[in-house]
Each structure stands twice: as C-alpha cells, then as structure tokens.
Design goal:
about 220 residues; alpha/beta; 2 domains; Rossmann fold; three-stranded parallel β-sheet
Length: about 220
C-alpha cells in the first residue's frame, strides 16, 4: 500500500511543537528567538519564500524582521547590512535571500555572514561541519527531507539511495546527510543530467530523492 508523505501536516505539527517550546522559554525568563531576513529586489519566488518565513515566525512565536533593498543596492551596502546583523545581539539568526542581482558576488555575501547566525546553512564552515557530522545549521530542503523520513519512520539504514542533483543547496548536502550514520545511514549514489546510468541506478534504488527542479527527468526511467 502506498503511503503519502504529507509535508504540510508535518510542518504544522513541528511549528506547534516549536511554539510550545518558545512559550516555555519565555515563561522561564528566556529570550524570544529573533529571525531576520534580507530581501533584495522584487523577485516573485523570493517574495513568496520570505513572506512564508515571516508567517512561520509568527506561528512559532519568534520575533521577525524583514530588511528590504532595491535591485540597485551596492555590494558594499549589503555587506554593511550583514555586518550590522552579525553584531546585533538581539538577532539570533538571519538569511540573505538568494538569488542576488548579478552585480553582487553571492559567495562574498554568504561568507560574510557569521556562521553562528547562518540559519540557511550556506557558510563554508557550516557546510564543512555538516560533512563531518558536527552540530551546525543545515540547509532547509535537505533537513526537511530527512525530518520527513524520520517522522514517518521510513527505514533508511543500509538502503540504496539515489540523489538526483548535485547543487550546493540541495543535492550535495542531501547526499551527505543520507550517508551519515546519525541521519540516513544509507548507501548513496548521486546522479545528474549527465549520468549515463541514471535509469539503472534509479531502478535499483530503494529511495530516490529528486533535487533537480525538473518534473520530467524521471519519466523515461520507468
């Protein structure tokens, strides 16, 4: 019997658990968590993503701050904003929404973020800590997938897992997490658009995680 994994229901349950934890922290005299987001320009996808983050903060009892810049913001201005957030003791974590305008070096911005506040998990220190299994911030989509597998009690240890995609944000961290003992503990193969044995690899897999942003790549596989 096929089991449908309901991401929205799981997210709702997790946010309720976090909200209760925050209530207890504040009731005991602790600090209300504070998440900030930096949004450049008016990209539709980015607008929606950040809006959902603000709503999620409200549902979890977090304080949230949205900092907006126009498309023509300079790299120096954005770096100054990142530096200010790094030094703001009330801000526990923040994101700089990607993609950024082409005149700004995204990697320079990512590396300017204090890794201890890098809730996106993009900073090289967090990526490195994740790779060797140390506590760190992990990028949202891979962590979400791992959480769904765990919440639904889907066995992954020793399973053959194929990750489709090799992006720094989803594919690579997903493969790392599925490989590590404390998460997936699986045997992992990473495939992408140039993999000659993609069809055979997928047919032999117990678990397939698609991280390629394409609905059609798998259709010829079956």
């Amino acid at each position: 019997m096929m089991q449908l994994i309901d991401g929205k229901a799981t997210a709702t349950a997790i946010k309720a658990e976090i909200a209760e934890e925050v209530r207890q922290i504040v009731a005991n005299g602790g600090k209300q968590p504070h998440l900030a987001a930096v949004l450049v320009g008016h990209d539709g996808g980015s607008e929606t993503y950040v809006k959902n983050k603000v709503i999620a903060c409200e549902q979890c009892g977090f304080k949230s701050t949205l900092i907006r810049f126009e498309e023509n913001v300079t790299e120096a201005e954005l770096l100054a904003c990142v530096d200010k957030l790094n030094k703001d003791e009330d801000v526990d974590g923040f994101i700089v929404q990607l993609p950024l305008p082409k005149h700004i070096d995204e990697q320079k911005i990512v590396e300017a973020v204090d890794y201890r506040k890098d809730v996106d998990g993009f900073h090289p220190i967090n990526v490195g800590r994740m790779a060797i299994g140390l506590p760190c911030f992990i990028s949202a989509t891979p962590l979400g997938i791992i959480t769904l597998l765990q919440r639904y009690g889907i066995p992954t240890s020793g399973k053959k897992c194929v990750v489709l995609g090799r992006s720094n944000i989803v594919g690579k961290p997903m493969a790392q997490l599925m490989l590590q003992k404390q998460y997936g503990d699986a045997t992992v193969t990473v495939c992408h658009s140039h993999s000659p044995s993609l069809k055979d690899d997928c047919r032999e897999a117990d678990i397939i995680i698609a991280a390629i942003g394409s609905l059609t790549l798998l259709r010829p596989t079956w």
